[in-house]
Amino acid sequence: MVRPDSKPGTEASRRLKQVACRLFAERGVDGVTVRDIAEAAGQKNHAAVGYHFGSKAALIRELVVDGAAHIDENRNAALDRLEAAGGPGAVLDVVEVLIATSVDLDGTGLEDSYNRFVVLLGMSHPRTFMAALDGRWNSGYLRCLEHLRRLMPDMPPALKNERLVFMGAYLGGVLAGREAALADRTREHPTWGSDQTLAHFATTMAALLEA
Predict the structure, then answer these.
(1) Are 65 and 137 in contact (CB under 8 A)?
(2) How far apart are CA 51 and CA 13, in angstroms?
(3) Cα(first)–Cα(last) distance of the chain, in Å?
(4) CATH classification of 63-210, choosing from 3.20.20.150, 3.40.190.10, 3.40.50.300, 1.10.357.10?
(5) Which of 40, 5, 46, 43 is nearest to 23 (CA)?
(6) Are 42 and 15 in contact (CB under 8 A)?
(7) 35-67: pLDDT as tens digits
């Protein structure tokens, strides 16, 4: 079914996306059916996903773009500010941008699940993930990589690229773990809930790149 243009902005569609992202984050996209999503969202009609989005695959793509576009806008804005002030002047400056923009998902409805969702999707269906980005929603990340290549210690380009691959996996894995812990409301998480932890995380990421 072709998704009606008016449906993505409805409260029902927003609720479906929020629930789907959480379920995908917990089980992976292959472990969740459209029926699971509809039931968890309180929809009596199990065809709700098809009605609002056309298909499960289309819903997945829209979720990727929702979060990625938000992150990319904030990331580019942060880099614009740094560059206007003559920076970034250190690896840590760029790493802090990468982390801060990855966790600032306010207003998307995906605050407690997006990092886990994309990490799992990127591992299980990397082509689906990259196709959803379509080369349009990662410009800020690519700008960060260019600054990092400039600021990292002198080493062969191939080694720099390896470290940047390690950094991407480290960034996604740690933030997904943090997100999973904070989604557990049954107990306190003093380590993951502290801003100081993110600062320490940034320090270790910078160390990985500068060693």
Answers:
(1) yes
(2) 9
(3) 53
(4) 1.10.357.10
(5) 40
(6) yes
(7) 999 999 998 888 999 999 999 999 999 999 999
